[in-house]
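Long-time lurker, finally posting.

We've been working with Protein trichome birefringence-like 26 (Camelina sativa) and I want a structural starting point before designing mutants. I don't trust myself to interpret raw outputs, so I'm hoping someone here can both generate the structure tokens and explain anything notable. Sequence follows.
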Amino acid sequence: MEQQLTLVLLDSPKGAKIVEDTCYPSSSSSSSVTSSSSTDRRHRTFVKFFVYLSLIALAYYFIISSFAVSPISPDTSSSANGSSEKCDLFTGDWVPDPSGPLYTNLSCHHIQDFQNCLLNGRPDVNYLFWRWKPRDCDLPRFSPSQFLDSVKNKWWAFIGDSIARNHVQSFICILSQVEEVEEIYHDKEFRSKIWRFPSHNFTLSVIWSPFLVKSETPNNSDIQLYLDQLDHKWTVQYSKFDYVVISGGKWFLKTTIFHENNNITGCHYCQGIDNLTDLGYDYSYRKTLNLLRDFVLNSTHKPLVLFRTTTPDHFENGEWNTGGYCNRTMPFKEGEAKMKTVDDVMRDVELEVFQKFGKGFGLGSNIRLLDTTGMSLLRPDGHPGPYRHPNPFAGVKDKSHVQNDCLHWCLPGPIDSWNDVMVEAMLNRERELYNLIGLK
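Top reply, 14 upvotes:
Generated this for you. Predicted structure of Protein trichome birefringence-like 26:
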């Protein structure tokens, strides 16, 4: 679609110029005709030019409407109220958005190959034409230029696993439409990175810390989790950050051995290793989030912190390693989607840990939830599926043998709307803190 639109937009001015050049009479012919005939010719020229432009506009309309799910414009009935502190940003619906994404896989050079669905041959594009709309207010699509102006000399960090990396790439793709970013650091595995937007002196990081706590995998054996020690890879940098988005997730489902107070206290999915008690992934996740919450609240450094909730996957008829797939091309409607048990349990833990302060969690504190679980659950159409690699079905007789990715998100795709919610949630928190300071 992007290529077709580009052709239309590039060819239109050139074609218009040709019409103007060929329709205006030459100076020699104009001297030998009457004023009336000259007027007629100018009139015919104008009519041709008008018809030509009308045809271009009509072609553009049909190109857009052929890809958009609905020609209905997004609902803006609540736009007068804007997105306020009292609005629940996380309860809403996906509504048609014919304007499409803020970038394409051609205009952004920071998309990981596994998530570059269009380049890898995904044939449908309807999943690009939706936006998230909260029920009680209008959520503006954040302006990358205004955002960059507001975060001059600031540092924003994402901490977590590959979904955090997926998110930061979406964020960079949007911001790089205003200013190209410079990568200034990466670790050996290219998992942790630091970028800078030079003209704004804005720094952006992603830190690979899938468990958020200290973890070791000696000699490729089972993962050892130290549930009383946060991962120093991010804690030693914490004092540099002005904004932080932290997330946990699916890594806690792996086989893990738990360490606390220099003792092995249990495990998850350890199948009787050394007669250890299987305490479950919810045990390690709860311990980790409590440790994380206490660290943020007790730290003398007070960046604005968002904890992003768990991301549900959409594997059907199996899991990633047992033939599971995701081939839907439309969002779910409310009530059509049901969360899997593991996601339900992780979300319950998150709400238990981060809502202990009651209504208005952490009022005056520097941490709050970025609750993207519900909005993500409704988008089974937004994953790479088999299009993790170019032309995944080439030479394959049995398509069921092609591995699908139904956890990460296509770029561009639904994850781009996380940024609208994330930025608005940060702005709301800043306003709350400002109001509290103003009242003192």
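Before you design anything, note these points.
DSSP finds ten helices and 13 strands in the chain.
Residues 35-67 form the longest helix (33 residues).
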